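Reopening this one. Same input as before:
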Amino acid sequence: MKSVKIVTVLCAALALAACDVPKKNKTVDRGFDAKHLSQLKAGVWIDPNGCDHWIIDDGVEGYLSARLDKYGKPVCSGTAPPNTATGAYKGGSPVVDPI
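Same output, byte for byte:
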């Protein structure tokens, strides 16, 4: 019984070790029209609480990041109603959004 537990623990450790994926540069779009994210146009999505999030949709992939002030606190500008996306967030890519 003890050897079964040891084998189980070793298998679990090995499986978890396989999950260690090398870090990738998250500022680069890795699609077939790959480019640096600074070349795409961001819009703003207002969450249900009224706070802003930067949003980019290049037609295949989408990117979202909380909009923060210089102190790291969320920006809640009130520029649009909650659950609304504004701006040219689908711009900067020749890929047509299939949806």
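So the earlier flakiness isn't reproducible anymore. For the record, Strands lie at 43-46, 52-57, 62-66, 84-86.
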